[in-house]
Design goal:
7% of the residues lie in helices and 29% in strands. It is mainly beta. A four-stranded mixed sheet has the order 2-1-7-6, with no helix packed on it. The longest helix has 4 residues.
């Protein structure tokens, strides 16, 4: 046997949750909520930053994301609470990027 021994190298285990997301021969892009959570949400209707994604609405019966929730802007330096949250339908999402989420919601656009 000499001085060298066969060493087994640990192989990274496949993430089982990622395998479940492969459907119809294609591969779905899988992302954790924690990776998505603190991304800026930008409305392309006016280029305005709506805020940071804080929550999701889920349809648990069908296993779908219904909408993204972004807290509304603070009133008077946050002393008087916040305005209503932005609830953005899944269909209004244009692109989920590495740093931002682009949405197209004309009803949230500020008029000039």
């Amino acid at each position: 046997m000499g001085g060298s021994r066969d060493r087994m190298r640990a192989q990274p285990a496949a993430a089982p949750h990622r395998d479940r997301c492969r459907r119809g021969g294609g591969v779905a892009i899988v992302m954790k909520f924690s990776e998505l959570r603190m991304r800026d949400v930008i409305n392309i209707a006016d280029g305005r930053r709506l805020g940071l994604l804080c929550d999701l609405e889920l349809d648990v019966q069908h296993g779908r994301i219904c909408s993204l929730i972004v807290p509304g802007p603070a009133r008077f330096f946050g002393l008087f609470g916040r305005e209503r949250d932005y609830v953005i339908a899944w269909d209004d999402i244009v692109k989920i990027g590495e740093d931002v989420i682009l949405v197209d919601v004309p009803s949230y656009a500020r008029s000039a």
